[in-house]
Design brief:
about 25% helix, about 35% strand
């Protein structure tokens, strides 16, 4: 049975056309899976699903994610990290538990979800950024500590005590929307140079017509960020808002307003 799989050109190059075609035909892909980003169940026969290939020095592991959590992509990891994840999956395979490749801390990728947030009766376009695992400080010690929020605070993101107020503008940052699709979150270049991508979609992400309309009206996007495992994949915007409010109350949410670049 054909699957609703997204296989990026990057993943196809790594696994080959024959294997990619088998995946799309459903011959070598699972129906049900645990999303490597939010770790909740998914069904590639019922919903858009991304193929995410974790590649080490000698080993590669193909994982699956909701397309709303992650785009199809190749993630480079150390062989030691990948083998550790494989051993954990194998050891715990009987009960379906265990570490997913997306749990690899130093090579965690950023999951981005779009949604509308109601503030003082007005709808605001928002992005929620949550890594698939702990984010280590570049050059820091390998202690599996999560430095995601401290790193963002150093970049100018502000702690969000609640989602009832529009967060301050983060100057020099912007959200790139092109031809109605989300392409990147841009940050200032070093030394006053051109802006560079802080997060970039491997394939442009679709946003709803309501989100696009609100973004074009306000020319500003609210960007919320939380550590891995804080928000998760929420099927409705009211549940997403509840998760954001809980993260804010727990001191696990930072935010910024960014101008919209593009249309």
């Amino acid at each position: 049975m054909p699957r609703m799989l997204d296989v990026s050109d990057e993943v196809r190059t790594e696994i080959g056309d024959e294997e990619a075609d088998r995946l799309l035909a459903g011959d070598s892909s699972p129906g049900g899976y645990d999303c490597t980003s939010c770790r909740t169940p998914g069904d590639s026969g019922q919903e858009r699903t991304s193929t995410v290939l974790f590649v080490g020095d000698e080993t590669a592991v193909l994982a699956f994610a909701h397309s709303t959590c992650l785009p199809s992509q190749v993630v480079r990891v150390s062989e030691e990290q990948l083998q550790g994840a494989v051993r954990s999956i194998t050891a715990d395979g009987e009960d379906g538990e265990g570490q997913q490749p997306g749990d690899l801390p130093e090579q965690a990728v950023l999951g981005v979800t779009s949604g509308l947030v109601l503030i003082e009766g007005e709808l605001h376009p928002a992005l929620v950024v949550e890594p698939t695992g702990p984010i280590a400080r570049p050059g820091g010690s390998d202690d599996n500590g999560d430095e995601f929020l401290p790193l963002l605070s150093e970049q100018g993101f502000q702690p969000a005590a609640s989602t009832a107020e529009v967060p301050p503008v983060l100057h020099g940052w912007s959200v790139l929307l092109a031809m109605g699709q989300l392409h990147a979150v841009l940050q200032p270049g070093t030394g006053g140079g051109a802006a560079v991508a802080w997060w970039q979609a491997h394939q442009p992400l679709q946003v709803t017509e309501g989100w696009r309309t609100a973004a074009n009206k306000r020319q500003t996007v609210l960007v919320y960020a939380a550590p891995a495992g804080t928000i998760g994949r929420q099927p409705r915007e009211d549940l997403l808002r509840d998760a954001l409010d809980k993260a804010a109350a727990a001191g696990r949410l930072v935010a910024a307003s960014m101008p919209l670049a593009g249309t």
